[in-house]
Amino acid sequence: MEKIKILHIIKSLGRGGAEMLLPETLKIHNTTTFEFHYIYFLPWKNQMVSAIEQAGGKVTCFQAKNNLTLLMQYAKIAKYCKDNGIQIIHAHLPWAGVVARMAGKVAKLPVLYTEHNNFDKYHFLTRVLSAVTYKYQTKVLAVSEDAKEALERRRLFHDIVYVPNGVNTAFFSKESSFRKLNDVETFVGEDKVIGTVAVFRKQKRLDVFVEVARLAQQKNLPFKFLMVGEGTEMPLVKSLIAQYQLQNIYLAGLQESPADFMKYMDVFLITSDFEGLPVALLEAMSMEIVPFCTPVGGIPNVVKDNQNGVLLKSQETTEIVSQLEAKVLGEITNFGSLQKAARATIVADYSIQRMVHQLETIYTEVLHERK
Known about the structure:
Layout: E1 4-10, H1 17-28, E2 34-40, H2 49-54, E3 58-61, H3 67-71, H4 74-84, E4 88-92, H5 94-107, E5 111-115, H6 124-133, E6 139-142, H7 145-154, E7 160-162, H8 182-188, E8 192-197, H9 206-218, E9 223-228, H10 234-244, E10 249-253, H11 259-262, E11 267-270, H12 279-286, E12 290-293, H13 299-302, E13 310-311, H14 317-329, H15 335-349, H16 352-370
Parallel strand pairs: 1-2, 1-4, 2-3, 4-5, 5-6, 6-7, 8-9, 8-11, 9-10, 11-12, 12-13
Helix pairs in contact: 4-5, 5-6, 9-10, 9-14, 12-15
């Protein structure tokens, strides 16, 4: 039987959450039924390429210097689809979504688009181009109820399905074997570790994260802070650490295996202004790291206050530190029960197997409806 050929289109293959899901889902997909192709545009953001190729995916870079030259690739993408017998285009993130819809219209192929964030939070031009091309797609897959509701309010599209992200719960487990990091172990000592794994963007409000560390240091609390990632906000983070002369933050930078660092974390702190459904959050919870998060995007779908984590009432650093003191250091809360409940939530509802099964069902239904 001929395989069903799916083309994923994404702006880059760096270490963002959406990008890292592509090789992880490919490892689980039924590759006797499906064949997966991948197109990306930023050649300097290629960290996921080898992982996808090792899992059997076919990766091509249509080089683009900016968003305008990215959109001009639509004819090449349409030709790629024709030459390779592509049957479904599946796009991720806004600019890739726009060019995928243009290519799909030319190639007369169904286009699926995964909405990873709240549409209302995008730049004005991004919203306009997305809205203009939205009619040229077949189905939208929203990773959170928040993302789904934002599209429904605007009445941009009628066929929107909730498909939450998933993680490999077998790998992201407290019981897994990870690298021993001697310098990290020396740094954290016997203290509790508050961590984050993220692309350092403005929306993440890492200035708040650093301010929490500053207040914890002022109060001489037994906390250490571990930051894993890289991005445009790194200069700000470094300048704040230097300005406050903080001794309790370890900047790990961009890492090939963030889980090696996550194993040292007790708390996963998210201070973002907005989110979709962070893959790193799901990975952390699967490793029994207790989430402390601002209640934005799809986070409240997963984190239930005082049941499997803590939903922060504000981004006020005094409030956050107070919560950390009470829940992590205080004897009133059974911190161990929060750890177990965090993993149980991911195993039950957010496994990569569940996500892949839902995607394959959608792919099959879309093709069946076109016949």
